[in-house]
Specification:
173 residues, alpha+beta, 4-stranded antiparallel β-sheet, 3 helices, 21% helix
């Protein structure tokens, strides 16, 4: 999915050559981002999910969107959870994917909700080597939404490459 803004007078972002409209971003709350990296994990029990990582150079972040499975190969995007990751968050996830630590736990708090993300390496040959879980608790009524998916070595390798690329772009090197 490519969420873009069209503007009759776009500006060119330095170092990327990408056109954007800063006024559109500020006024609408939307942002342009590059193509996403989705990891779809439906299962026969209906308890699967999808994690989608998108890079936004204009928000200087990676956005994680996760949606629970709602049917055989369908996902409930109306119930998605969104987290904005900056450099420290990316570093934590990369440390797990690179084998430097067994688990990363991220916690983001706002007036509306608290969100958590966990990425765990599992040394169990009967299970996928990684597990990702994201949850969000609304402050207003304390309801909790949660999405978790297993991650195979190949998926983890691609995710590591994607996140390393995001770090490089965010730093500007």
């Amino acid at each position: 999915m490519n969420d873009t803004i069209t503007d009759p007078n776009p500006t060119t972002e330095p170092n990327t050559g990408t056109e954007r409209s800063a006024s559109s971003e500020r006024n609408t709350g939307t942002f342009e981002r590059l193509p996403d990296y989705p990891i779809y994990k439906p299962n026969s029990r209906g308890s699967g999910g999808v994690f989608r990582f998108g890079f936004s150079p204009y928000k200087s972040a990676v956005f994680l969107e996760a949606a629970p499975q709602s049917g055989e190969r369908q996902f409930d995007w109306d119930q998605k959870i969104i987290m904005k990751w900056t450099l420290p968050d990316l570093g934590q996830a990369l440390a797990v994917l690179q084998g430097r630590q067994p688990q990363a736990k991220l916690f983001h708090q706002s007036e509306k909700a608290n969100s958590t993300f966990e990425l765990t390496f599992r040394d169990d040959p009967a299970k996928a080597p990684y597990l990702m879980i994201v949850s969000r608790q609304l402050t207003e009524d304390k309801t909790v939404r949660k999405v978790g998916i297993p991650l195979a070595h190949g998926e983890a390798a691609i995710l590591e490459t994607v996140l390393r690329s995001a770090v490089t772009r965010l730093i500007g090197w």
